[in-house]
Amino acid sequence: MEDNQKVVMISGASSGIGLYAAEYLGKLGNYVFAGARKTTDISRLSEIQNVHGVKLDITKPDDISAAVEAVETRIGYLDVLINNAGIPGWGAVMDRDLEYFQQIIDVNLFGALRMIKAFYPLLKRSKNRPVIINMSSQGGNYAFPFWAPYHMSKWALEALSDSLRRELLPLGIRVVVMQPGAIRSLAFESQRDEFTDYAKQVKSEFQARAISLLQAAFVDPNRKTKDPQVVADALVHAIYSPNSKLYYHPGRRLIPDLLAAKLPQKLVDRILARIGSD
Ligand SMILES: NC(=O)c1ccc[n+]([C@@H]2O[C@H](COP(=O)([O-])OP(=O)(O)OC[C@H]3O[C@@H](n4cnc5c(N)ncnc54)[C@H](OP(=O)(O)O)[C@@H]3O)[C@@H](O)[C@H]2O)c1
């Protein structure tokens, strides 16, 4: 392995940001272990230059142990852990049961935590400025109505990242947070049927507002998105630059994000309360 070649592990590499990043980092000459759940995706990943597909569901400890073993056996250390796998979580708080929240948080938060704990011994062996990169979201910064499960998982992932960064600093292991804006992927397309069912079945007092606020994400999900290259560029900076940042914000910041950051929160509350109420 040459000095500028890194050993990378990335979860959720079957589509979207993860697939693009695995391909791109492989093309740059890094050795990439790319996690996916389906056999066809794993085989497809292994056909990409410098990419080795591994079976990885981040809610399954056995999959994670096998992925650690694969990296340990082939290389013996890890330079870059990218916790990319994640799922959207949405719906009115009162309409979603506790199990739904647990499922989103199990993937987006505990999945990353399981990976970090499992790969830590291999990261400690890296002599190559090791880094853990956690894929949060612009939604890790604010909380809009009807997206509570997602925001909760990403805010908590950011809290984990901040604490961990300060714990690992003396050991020379960096922790970086990515907060992408809207990026072209399959995230919402793959949940369109679930949204249609939700819109039909939920009859609560929240339904009209929830649908008004959520439907833009599901009806034409990739209309105003950026190419995943912007995230790949940020990942490369985080991995290689001697001046790597703690946070990156690749991609388009949605208008709601700008509103939430710039306007008084009581005003934002009033604007959001009117959507779908008329
Ligand atoms: N796209 C955006 O606009 C955007 C913005 C901000 C943040 N993000 C974040 O970026 C990350 C990647 O999402 P994406 O937009 O590229 O969506 P995507 O195309 O749907 O990719 C999500 C990936 O996560 C995988 N995954 C889901 N559950 C998993 C589990 N239990 N174990 C392992 N892998 C699992 C999926 O695998 P399967 O194919 O097997 O389901 C898929 O490979 C997520 O963390 C997301 O929250 C995305």
- Provide the spatial order of strands within the biggest beta sheet: 3-2-1-4-5-6-7
N-to-C terminal Cα separation, in Å?
A: 62 Å
In terms of DSSP E residues, the strand content is: 5-15%
The CATH topology is given as Rossmann fold
- Ligands bound here? NADP nicotinamide-adenine-dinucleotide phosphate
The number of helical elements comes to: 10
CATH superfamily: NAD(P)-binding Rossmann-like Domain
Question: What would you say this structure looks like, in words?
Answer:
- This protein has helices at 16-27, 39-46, 61-74, 98-124, 148-168, 192-201, 207-219, 229-240, 255-262, 265-274; strands at 7-10, 31-36, 51-55, 80-83, 131-135, 174-178, 247-248.
- The N and C termini lie far apart (62 Å).
- It has one domain (7-190, 225-254): NAD(P)-binding Rossmann-like Domain (Rossmann fold, 3-Layer(aba) Sandwich).
- It is built from ten helices and seven strands.
- Strands 3-2-1-4-5-6-7 form a seven-stranded parallel sheet, sandwiched between helices.
- It is 49% helix and 11% strand.
- The protein is of the alpha/beta class.
- Helix 4 links the parallel strand 4 (80-83) and strand 5.
- Helix 4 packs parallel to helix 5.
- The chain is globular.
- The site of NADP nicotinamide-adenine-dinucleotide phosphate has 30 residues, from helix 1 and helix 4.
List keywords for this structure.
49% helix, 278 residues, 10 helices, seven-stranded parallel sheet, Rossmann fold, alpha/beta, binds NADP nicotinamide-adenine-dinucleotide phosphate
Protein topology:
Layout: E1 7-10, H1 16-27, E2 31-36, H2 39-46, E3 51-55, H3 61-74, E4 80-83, H4 98-124, E5 131-135, H5 148-168, E6 174-178, H6 192-201, H7 207-219, H8 229-240, E7 247-248, H9 255-262, H10 265-274
Parallel strand pairs: 1-2, 1-4, 2-3, 4-5, 5-6, 6-7
